[in-house]
Amino acid sequence: MASSDDPFGMDAALAALDAPGARTGLTSAPRRDGPRLSLRDHDRYVSLTMEFRCNLACEHCMIEGTMDRLRPTSDDTFARVLEEQERNARWDGLVLTGSEITLRRDLPDLARRARDAGFAHVRIQTHGMHLSRPGYADRLIEAGVDEFFVSVAGSDAESHDRIVQVRGAWDKMMRGLAYLDAHDHVRILTNTVVTTSSYPLLPGMVAALSHLRRLVQHEFWTYFPMAERDEKGLAARHANILPYLRDAIDRSRELGRFVEVKNFPECLLGAQADALVNAQPLLVIDEAFWQEFDRNEFHLCPHRAACRSTECLGLSRAYVAKYGNERHLLTPLP
Questions:
Q1: What is the spatial distance between Cα 314 and Cα 296, in angstroms, rounded to a whole number?
Q2: Rounded distance between C-alpha atoms, residue 203 and residue 207, angstroms
Q3: What's the pLDDT tens digit per position in 178-205?
Q4: For residue 185, which of 93, 120, 137, 277 sits 20 to 30 Å off, Cα-Cα?
């Protein structure tokens, strides 16, 4: 479907969807040769934000101030995505996401319709608590959900529950993951937001999930506040994060898992720079979200003009306001 002028096929996909709030998130081209150290399948997925309610209160929530006014992707847009898939088989997979997608009662029906339209994979992004409810995971799997992208905030019940601010969340999530792990065709991915609360916990998170056979990728997303300043005090200094992040990457790879790191300076990762993958699938979300997101003003690294990286997002406005531009720590890639 892609042309030489549109190597990812993203321009064509955007035109086909004609959906307000749709934005591409690809950075450098995915590698098709050599060793695979991350899934890097973002160009083959489309992501729809289908819900804006949540029953957690995560301290790092990006949309807590806008959740009440953001609107889910419309039924008409969902139908256009299915029609485009039926006609052109444009993607391999569909991601159903939101503040908490499992709060949608019709989630199994959405998954079933996606599979009927020709999607080879249906992925949900979730906090994982509801997967432990009797019969619920079965209904999702039977409907065609085969990939579960689960948010993990801490390394044990105390830290996880403290960060998401709901007691019992860890135990429910872990029971759900254990149930998914018994299904051979299921893939599990995890997402951890790296904050001042969580960065020392990263190696312990990997260890706590080391028994899961279906867990294929850990993702570590460095926190940014969707604003010009870090009012919550959750943005951690990169130099403080680095030793724990390195340890977590090593532990993940020793377990045979892929790793993707988001929003962290590539030059600081050194030999582990191949873990930096800031790409995202084509995302459809309420346009009001992007108005807030663009307040971040990424790419503020003082070496940007000289750096040859195509993957790094540099520094955000809030990070520079808090810690300065850290010129002495960052190095332009040749």
A1: 11
A2: 6
A3: 999 999 999 999 999 999 999 999 999 9
A4: 277
